[in-house]
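User: I'm preparing a small set of examples for a lab meeting where we compare how different chains pack in three dimensions. I only have the primary sequence for this one, and I'd like the structure in token form so I can line it up with the others. Please keep the answer compact; I'll paste it straight into my notes.
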Amino acid sequence: AVVAAIGAAVGMRNGNGSKATASKAVEEEVPKIDVSIPYDAPAQLAFGQMAKGKRVEYAKFKDLYEGKAVAEVKKKVYGQKVAMEMERMDKEIEEMQKEMDGMFS
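Assistant: Understood. Below is the structure token output for the 105-residue chain.
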């Protein structure tokens, strides 16, 4: 498919001026492979690593795994918001301190 795309982009032509059929032949030879990943692949992988032969209900594990992931993202977002607010407050405090210092110089 990549070769076909390159050939089409470059506009390969054979001796009589028509587009080359080599790219089409290559495209037909390459089997189509499904490379899609299930949305719950991380949960499946973690479950497989943690279960190790134990009888555990996947559906409950998946719900907990996804809930934990959401909580971790929320924590990070809130942490960034807090850091930004603290930075803003530090600047405000610094400006007030400069103003106070200026009163005595």
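A couple of notes for your slides: Helices lie at 2-10, 22-29, 41-51, 58-103. Residues 45 and 51 are 10 Å apart (CA to CA).

User: Perfect, thanks.
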